[in-house]
Specification:
This is Basal-body rod modification protein FlgD. This protein is α+β, with helices and mostly antiparallel strands and 229 residues long. The chain is built from five helices and twelve strands. The strands form two sheets. Strands 1, 3, 6, 9, 10, 11 and 12 form a seven-stranded antiparallel sheet that branches. Strands 2, 4, 5, 7 and 8 form a five-stranded antiparallel sheet that branches. The radius of gyration is 34 Å and the shape is elongated.
Length: 229
């Protein structure tokens, strides 16, 4: 086979595969091999093999499989990069949507919402024969109490709806204390309260969306128990 016929045959194969050898050669880096390079090497290998000891079919198929694997890994990398870009856009949308919302976070500092109310929950480790919530100021003075009586195990909601105007106007944070008797007398349990989201950032790929929550600083959106507008 002449050199001209060989080149024409190679070009015909490349055209059928949709590979433009000249265009790829000008766009790819010199230290990378593409489909055209692989087919050229394989064609040259077949042309120059020993006719008395031709290339084994298994070796030929192994080379094709290796090239397919490398191509698949490259395509998968491009797909994952596209997914990463889409996730970044999703994080931006999530962060912007959380602004102006309240999130339920573990803690005992609460502030009245736009309706002048305080809402939260306590997570009881077991059923309680009696339970109550106390709202105090910074000096420890009791401002309000809620007797919730017997409660089953799990999340139990509480609220303070009729907060006096002088407390609302003060703008001070209110401390929430929760107690329950699960068989050993009244013991303190940890409450969770709604707090305002002041700002939100997309963070990085590892940490995800980060929220700046009033009175609680920066927390991960993944740690938030519940969202509320």
């Amino acid at each position: 086979m002449s050199t001209i016929d060989s080149n024409q045959s190679l070009n015909a194969i490349l055209d059928k595969l949709g590979v433009n050898k000249q265009e790829e050669a000008t766009t790819k880096r010199r230290d990378q091999l593409g489909q055209a390079d692989f087919l050229k090497l394989m064609t040259t290998q077949l042309q120059n093999q020993d006719p008395f000891a031709p290339m084994d079919n298994a070796d030929f198929i192994a080379q094709m499989a290796q090239f397919s694997t490398v191509t698949g890994i490259t395509d998968m990398g491009e797909t994952l990069k596209g997914m990463s870009d889409q996730l970044q856009e999703f994080r931006i949308a999530t962060a912007s949507n959380l602004l102006g919302h309240s999130v339920l976070v573990p803690g005992n500092l609460a502030r009245p919402d736009e309706n002048g109310e305080i809402h939260g929950v306590v997570d009881l480790p077991s059923s309680a024969s009696t339970s109550n919530i106390r709202f105090t100021n910074e000096q420890g003075e009791i401002l309000h109490q809620v007797d919730m009586g017997a409660q089953p195990r799990g999340l139990v909601g509480f609220s303070w709806l009729d907060i006096p105007s002088e407390i609302l106007e003060s703008g001070d944070a209110i401390r929430v204390e929760a107690y329950a008797d699960t068989g050993n007398g009244l013991e303190a349990v940890s409450p969770s309260v709604f707090a305002d989201v002041l700002a939100a950032t997309t963070g990085n790929g590892r940490d995800g969306v980060q929220l700046d929550v009033r009175d609680y600083g920066t927390i991960s959106a993944a740690e938030v128990i519940k969202f509320r507008k």
